[in-house]
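[job 4417] fold queue: 2 targets
>>> target A
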Amino acid sequence: MAARAAVHCGPRGSVMAAPTQRAAGWGRWLCTAAAPRPWRLFGAMCLLRLPRITQPLEKEEEEMAALMGQIELEKSHYSDHEIRKLEEEEQLRRRKESMYDDDEAPGKTVIMAQDLEDKWEQKLLRFKAAPRITDADKNNNRTSLNRKLDSNLMLLVKQKIGNQELWLLPQVEWQPGETLRSTAERAMATFLGDHIQAKILGNAPYGIYKYKFPRAIRTEDNVGAKVFFFKAFLQSSDLSQAELKEDYLWVTKDELGDYLKSEYLKKVNRFLLDL
């Protein structure tokens, strides 16, 4: 007599058809096709604003830069401007010696290389570099992108998890039919709106954070959550049109410890580089 077909899960949770008659020891693999997921899945986006200026040089770096500049100067060739200046200086020397220069047309205005250098020098004196320390730095305004210009800034948002409000990377729960990357993209759009421009790095997550729910609400079908982290570089310099719907902060790697829980922070630090 033909055995009736049933559905069972393999050692890694794969679903396959198998007869209901089983050998000893198979019982632990049997399950129903509609087995509930014990872990809830979330996609989170690590959105970074890259540095806008270089970091100040250390003393050793300044000394090395000066040495390399001196070596480069000694081994370099004259530029076209320097050759022109030397030629003009030679013409002036000959003119003073002979008191006559038949190469110059009467009434012609000649702009010498030295005249250009004087003009450039005056322009340089009028130039004023923007300050490295901004008003947002002075006021410690961590909601502003115009701060810590020589460091990466990461977006944190305040979300309600259970009965707690926690600072986290933007995250939302996975929906059937989505890839984890599209879930992370939706998390970014949920908190920043559709006007944000960002370059997402790859299709695979950079890290994962796994935690169990409190015992009071934990069940066999609802054990905990797994958060998959993706990374993106912010390309929008102006977020005035962004629809920020929650409390948010832009913080450096060193400032993350002021907001993130220790275990969550360890997982984030594993894939976050601040060069």
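>>> target B
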Amino acid sequence: MVLPRAGAAARGWGWGWGGGAAGRSPPPLAALSQVLRLERSRRTGVVFPLQKLARYLAPGADTARFRLFQPGLAALQRAEALFRSGRDHAIDYVSSAVRMDHAPPPALPEVCFIGRSNVGKSSLIRALFSLSPEVEVRVSKTPGHTKKMNFFKVGKYFTLVDMPGYGYRAPQDFVEMVEAYLQERHNLKRTFLLVDGVVGLQKTDHIAVEMLEEFGIPYVMVLTKIDRASRGLLLKNVLEIQEFVKEKTQGCFPQLFLVSSLEFSGVHLLRCFVAHVTGNLPTVEAS
């Protein structure tokens, strides 16, 4: 497998926060090369926020679920290369669909991102693609802005799908649309279920979990907006959700992923996990 070269820095790639405007610098810490310049403690917090949070557990607490996926630098760099567009590696918005017969052919491994309205889903996808300024991911201040399934093709490697939000202002046909996708999309490798890191699991999140469990869909929970939560509140929510995953789920990956789209905490690790579950990192060496 030949990946596009992972440059040492962003080298002038523009990043339009409104989507698509070139000529601007990438956000701070969008590239690993920027993160590596930080002092060690802060660097750990950006790349492995869950691991850093584990330091505040009570003595003797089990930390296994805090470090199940802990790739080394080489794997993180290879994953970043996938998310950086280049001459021979196009990252494109492909199409939007409200019905499965409008969806693009299932030719590549696929991941989808789903979550409650206003959980920060589109903002996170925009952060993942922040090194590719031509990729337009629309983000609105109005909850429920995403009304269709939006497909993004990452070269010849995988497709990422931005699903409509559930709960407040969800599309009327949300259930039919999402259930059909989950049941019929046989190239789906992992569903990323986004949960607000400030408020934790809500009733609508439990309904989403029940749906994924019923359909036997492998998924992983991602806690968003961690920059808005105090350390104590975040640790409380993490421990409660970890216990829920352990006791009440079968298809959920036992490690949570913590992210801040604003500060880029956890974004590099999440890129790596996406690359891993789509088969583009055959082996992930530990750090």
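[job 4417] complete. Note on B: Residues 231-248 form the longest helix (18 residues).
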